[in-house]
């Protein structure tokens, strides 16, 4: 009688167990996805911690000190705000995340383009240039912060979460170092960027 009750209890709970196992299986990420996320993490952090901070002054100061100030101040507001956004709006789609990474790369490239124009103005307009410089800084800060949190949250899932988060941190540092290592000689030795006159 007890064996019958135990078997009935097991059969009753088994659908829940299977559902949990199915959900856990779906949350697992493949090795190829894992590699893609690590590479994207390095790219985003190279832009966020190495490239953008190095060229922001060249991209903004040709228009005014206020442009540079507002770009930095508002980016410091946007960045933590976008870090909270994955708690409400997130995606696990690798194509979408790759597309957002490409978008962040395009915005970063535009900031580099503005910096390369220095001390000249884009469209020879202070107003348009100021809006574009500030807008690009905010968009880059938002995309970089959002993607970094989403990538880490994806790697946190599954059985090997500790190991994957460790390597996520490693690739964050690799990307940051690579971005800084590339920009340092370009700015200090190659001199491809020219500072705007202080009077502006």
UniProtKB/TrEMBL annotation:
It is found in: Cell membrane. Keywords: Cell membrane, Membrane, Transmembrane, Transmembrane helix, Transport. It is a multi-pass membrane protein. The keyword Transmembrane applies. It catalyses: riboflavin(in) = riboflavin(out). One of its GO terms (molecular function) is riboflavin transmembrane transporter activity. Plasma membrane transporter mediating the uptake by cells of the water soluble vitamin B2/riboflavin that plays a key role in biochemical oxidation-reduction reactions of the carbohydrate, lipid, and amino acid metabolism. This is Riboflavin transporter. InterPro entries: Riboflavin_transptr (IPR009357). Belongs to the riboflavin transporter family. Its main location: membrane. It comes from the Eukaryota. The chain crosses the membrane at residues 29-48, 68-89, 96-117, 123-144, 165-187. The keyword Iron does not apply. It holds the Pfam family SLC52_ribofla_tr. GO terms for cellular component: plasma membrane.
């Amino acid at each position: 009688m007890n064996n019958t009750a135990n078997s009935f209890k097991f059969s009753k709970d088994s659908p829940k167990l299977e559902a949990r196992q199915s959900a856990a299986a779906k949350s697992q990420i493949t090795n190829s996805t894992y590699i893609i996320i690590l590479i994207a993490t390095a790219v985003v952090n190279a832009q966020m911690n190495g490239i953008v901070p190095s060229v922001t002054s060249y991209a903004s100061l040709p228009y005014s000190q206020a442009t540079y100030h507002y770009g930095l101040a508002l980016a410091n507001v946007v960045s933590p705000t976008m870090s909270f956004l994955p708690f409400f709006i997130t995606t696990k789609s690798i194509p979408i995340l790759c597309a957002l990474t490409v978008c962040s790369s395009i915005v970063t490239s535009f900031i580099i383009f503005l910096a390369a124009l220095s001390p000249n103005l884009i469209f020879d307009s202070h107003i348009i240039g100021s809006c574009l410089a500030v807008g690009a800084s905010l968009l880059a800060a938002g995309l970089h912060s959002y993607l970094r949190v989403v990538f880490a949250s994806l790697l946190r899932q599954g059985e090997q979460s500790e190991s994957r988060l460790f390597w996520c941190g490693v690739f964050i540092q690799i990307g940051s170092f690579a971005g800084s290592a590339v920009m340092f000689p370009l700015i200090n030795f190659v001199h491809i960027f020219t500072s705007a006159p202080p009077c502006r």
